């Protein structure tokens, strides 16, 4: 589908691509990875003739692209640049329809293409098609950028760090989507990243570049098992250190400043504390610091007496999470209970923190796990 034969590119006297050769099969998902400046973008742009190499040959579909009209060539190749580049004065529908319109599809067909594509990434056409890019979140805009590249149904799609600017949650969602889309639409994708996790997750084949040369070209499994040099090994090590959002735990999301009191504190002290802190419940601790439950201002009122200790009131046993519990499981618990927060406990049952519905966690959870409420 795409073949490089001894491709050489110079800028001035500097060699940017030094005898690059590789072959990409139809339907393959190939990831180009390597340090900044190694020539990934230059390689990508050579495929759609935004850059012309001095030496060597590039074939797309068996045709030497130096002999193909660049405009014609680019119609067969979708391109997602790093800054997505949606047109701010056009609606989402107009943005997606840009290429099909240029290819003179009928209006009704453009609408159908837009609708179908939006459905594939779970964005409701009625809700979003008529919005403008600024009315969408960064992740949603990125999704539209990807859809636009796919819209004219080109057999080849080039993507230059399409998810680079996104938070890990949104990135994970979009990675899943792009893999699904590729499988469904059977595209040949060349995808640039410098994130090894992303490469390992997405690629059928990884091409690792350094100083304009290919250091290793291998499947993710092969590269994991036998990295060709120290630089690749280093990329692998760094990537395994950064956490996969699906492996986040309760500890990554909890707030550690929850207010707690021992059972022996007087009720009066507790109500004063609640008034001062503008909170309507307190976490109660046993003498050995283990967690005992929650007491709400309503429980205190029901108790009727303002004398005595808070320990005389039976605390409410709300839901708790272990500190090592998967973040998604903690969120699920929270949303399936009527409680406003989950108390996160250390191994020894002391209080580590709380995860509340109103904390940032909600937004993060929404992105990754969809609407939960
Ligand atoms: N138009 C240009 N003129 C001169 N030098 C350029 C030009 N474009 C790129 N270069 C140089 O070519 C080299 C490779 O650039 P390229 O954009 O392909 O790197 P990259 O691997 O995509 O890096 P990054 O990860 O930072 O995006 C760099 O050293 C860059 O400075
Ligand atoms: Mg680049």
Distance between the termini: 45 Å
* Number of discrete domains: 2
Task: Tell me the strand percentage band.
Answer: 15-25%
Q: Tally the helices.
A: 15
Proper CATH architecture of the largest domain: 3-Layer(aba) Sandwich
The radius of gyration is 27 Å
Unreliable parts: 359-373
SSE class: alpha/beta
CATH overall fold name of the largest domain: Rossmann fold
Catalogue the ligands: adenosine-5'-triphosphate, magnesium ion
Can you put this structure into words, describing what you see?
- It is found in: Cell inner membrane.
- InterPro entries: AAA+_ATPase, ABC_transporter-like_ATP-bd, ABC_transporter-like_CS, CBS_dom, CBS_dom_sf, Gly-betaine_transp_ATP-bd, P-loop_NTPase.
- It catalyses: a quaternary ammonium(out) + ATP + H2O = a quaternary ammonium(in) + ADP + phosphate + H(+).
- It is a peripheral membrane protein.
- Keywords: ATP-binding, CBS domain, Cell inner membrane, Cell membrane, Membrane, Nucleotide-binding, Repeat, Transport.
- The protein has 373 residues and is an alpha/beta fold.
- The protein has two domains: 246 residues, Rossmann fold (3-Layer(aba) Sandwich), CATH 3.40.50.300; 120 residues, CBS-domain (Roll).
- The protein is 38% helix and 24% strand.
- The chain has 15 helices and 16 strands.
- The strands form four sheets. It has a six-stranded mixed sheet, with helices on both faces. A four-stranded antiparallel sheet has the order 2-1-4-5, with helices on one face.
- The longest helix is centred in the middle third of the chain and has 18 residues.
- It is elongated, with a radius of gyration of 27 Å.
- The two termini are 45 Å apart.
- The C terminus is likely disordered.
- It binds adenosine-5'-triphosphate and magnesium ion.
- Adenosine-5'-triphosphate binds next to helix 1.
